Each structure stands twice: as C-alpha cells, then as structure tokens.
Amino acid sequence: MAVTEPPKKEKIGLIRQLGLFDSTMMLMGIIIGSGIYMTTGDMAQYLPSAGLLLLAWVVGGLLSLFGALSFAELGAAMPHAGGQYVYLKVAYSPIWGYLFGWMLFFVAMGGSIATLGAAFARYVGYFLPTLGTDNYLYQTELNLFSLTHTYTLSMGHFVAVAAILVLSFFNYIGVVFGKWIQNIITIVKIGTLIIFIVLGLTIGKTTSIDFSLNPTGLSLGKLISSFGVALIAVFWAYDGWHNLNYITGEIKKPHRNLPLALVLGTFLIIVFYFLMNYVYLLALPAAEMAGVERIAQKTGALLFGEKAAGCISAAVLISVFGALNGAIFVAPRVYYAMAKDGLFFQKVAQVHPRFRTPAFAIVIQAVWASLLALSGTFEQLYTYVIFATILFCIATVVAVFTMRKTHPHMPRPYKTWGYPVLPAIFIIASTIICINTIIEKPVEALVGLFLIALGIPVYYYWKAKNRQN
C-alpha cells in the first residue's frame, strides 16, 4: 500500500507590491511632515542671515542625498525587509542590528509615531477646539524620587490615539490600503507645496531679500557654530530618507526601484524645501523670523492675507497625517526581520495569510505608540535618541566601505555614485553633528546611549532562549 506524503504547508511571506511611484511617494510622504512649515523660525534664532539659511537647507539636503546613495547600494545588494537592521547585522554583528531595532521600536519610531499623532491632534484642535490638546480632561501631580511631574490628559490625546489606531488598522488589512493612503496624501502634500511656492513667487506681497552672509556682525567662530546649530534642525527636517529601506522586501525590482526612489525622492524634497524657504524670505526678513514657531502661517498671512492661515493649517494637518501613515507602514518590517532571527516574539515574524502584512508587528507597534501618546512623555524620549540615530546612520554608511572588503563577491546591482568621496563627506559631517550634540546637549546624548545599552541584556536573553529551543 502506497503511503501518501502530507501536503507541504505553503510558506506565507511578504510579497513585492510596491512600484517606483509607490516607493517614491512613500519616501517623500514620510519626510514631508510639519518640519518644513515650522523649522525655519527656530533656525533664524541662531542664524539671522537669509543667504546662510538657504545654504543650510541645501547642505542638509545634500548630506541626506549622500546618505541615501549609500543606503541604495546596501538595499540593492540585500533586498530584504528590515533595512538597517539587516545591514548592521551582516556588516558587523547581530547585536548591532538588534540594538538598532530595539531603539527603533521602544523609542525612535514609537516616539515618532506618538509625536506625529500629537501634532495631528494639535492641528485638529485648530479647527475643532473641543478635540484639541488644550481641552483638558484630567490633571494630577505625580511624585517619584522627590521629582514632581504634572500629568495632563486632554481630548487631543484621544485624537492622537484614534489616528494611530485607524491608520494601523488600514495598514493591517493590506499593503494596498497603506500605499494608496500614502500615495493620495503625498500627492496632495506636494500639490500644496507647489501652490504655495508658485503663488508666493507670482502674486504674493513680497519684499526684497538681503543676501548678506553676516548682517549682524557675528564673529567667524560664532557664525560657524550658529550654522552648525541650524544645520542640526535642517538635518531633522529631512529625517526619514532611510526609512524606505525597511520595506525593501516588498518593493518590485528593488535593484532598480530602490535606488531610483531614494535619489529621486530626496532630490525633489531638496528643491521643494529650498523654494519654500525662499518664499518665506520674500515675505519676512531673516531677523524677523527668529522664534516664529509657525513660520508658514505667518509668512502666508503676509503674502496672501489672514485667511491663508487656515489653509496652511489644513496643509500641515494633511502633511502630518501622511507622515504618520508612512511611519506606521514601514517600521513593523524591522520588527518582523528581528523576529525571523529569533530576536523578538515569534508571533511578530508571522505574515497574515490573507492580508500579507506583518500583522502582529503592526498591532504591538500601535499599542506601544498609543501608550506613549497617552503618557505625554514621548517628545522627551524622542530627543534622547536623536544622537544614537545619527550614530546608527554613520555606522550604516561606513558599512558600504567595510562590506566591499569583507564581502567583495556580494552582487551589487547598484554601486554608490561618487564613492568613496560622497559617503566619506556624509560620515565626516554626521560625526561633526554628533560631536556638536555631545557639547551642546551632553545629558540627552548620554541618556540616549543609556537607552540603547538597555537592549544589550535583552539581546542575550533572546539568544539564550533560542539556544534552549
């Protein structure tokens, strides 16, 4: 009697559903958040020079582009879900990949999603004050180790959580839903920027721009230091260019589409950011921008009248919503990759058999980000890990050099344009930013490193558990 073998169970994994357009929109949608509408006023406090402000936006954009060129080589060579987690694991050691993933889940992306949710709620409150962050529901004093913390719960907290959960739900039930939300919102965001720029250059009530490099007579040392501080703000307005690599495992023809999306998306954002700031300067001198938190609203009112403020608030609302969707979409792929290696809960490595998404990874991310949003401590947590985020980006670009030596035969369908000069410029400039962070904000830098170090014993716990299994 013949014995029939049981049918083999089909392996369910992520599938490649994102084309070049989808990937570019994902990248641009993540980067374009509230930063371009708010950052310049903060920069002008340190750098009251129109010429140097514009130069800072170009330099920050070019550094991001140089980093993107390096990430493109790594992504094309290792077209898997997880991005930096995979590259750091292969280039150095699994523990470095794990520490990146640890930081991403617990602080960087969790805090970023909570922050974007809160920003969304803040602008919802502009139109519907009862749903805003100023409508307090509960307030209490918390005492811990002789430290007092005032905790406030507002309607805005619940709006932030609702936005996180709704977008997480749509990303849970399919890549198609997530990508179309991102595509549509990003198109609207780009269209809004174009309208603002074109109207500002043509019919806006503009003034002449003073391009003096040092109108306030700062010393050379102070001028360089101020430019460095402004550059840090710009660097973070461009943050998110490396997030596209997290979803390489779902990009069609990644050897072609990933490099193109990284370069095209980053370059277009450099152009848009430069022109937006040029229009700001047509409306308001650099010295008068200092400390203006909502620079787009103020300059929009000067260019087009007070009614423009509402339109710009709506644009920021849409922009933040798109950035929130992009963050929710990409990050779970890193946790999925960690779980596949046995370094996270095994259920996180499961792909939904119907929706083909890392469903449980999306769920735990939504829960954690919602808790951070309700806690009210997410913004401080996020500032602590900025320093470590830059360090991981430096290590990843250095991996382009090391892997060409340690893995010379690895297929590289795309090689970094401008190698070794452009990656070296990125490494040197980013290292200077790290040094500046240590000097200017030593507490934040040390706390950030401490939060990363907390992941070391957890890594060895997962390793020991794998050996037992």
Strand content: under 5%
Mean pLDDT metric: 88
Taking all Cα atoms into account, the compactness measure Rg is 23 Å
Instruction: Tell me the strand order in the biggest sheet.
Output: 1-2
The coarse overall form would be globular
Major pleated sheet: 2 strands, antiparallel
Question: How many strands in all?
Answer: 2
Briefly note the structural class of the backbone: mainly alpha
Q: CATH-wise, what's the superfamily?
A: Amino acid/polyamine transporter I
Proportion of residues in helical segments = 55-70%
Keywords for this structure?
19 helices, 469 residues, mainly alpha, Amino acid/polyamine transporter I
Concise synopsis of the structure shown:
The protein is mainly alpha-helical. It is built from 19 helices and two strands. The longest helix has 34 residues, at 94-127.
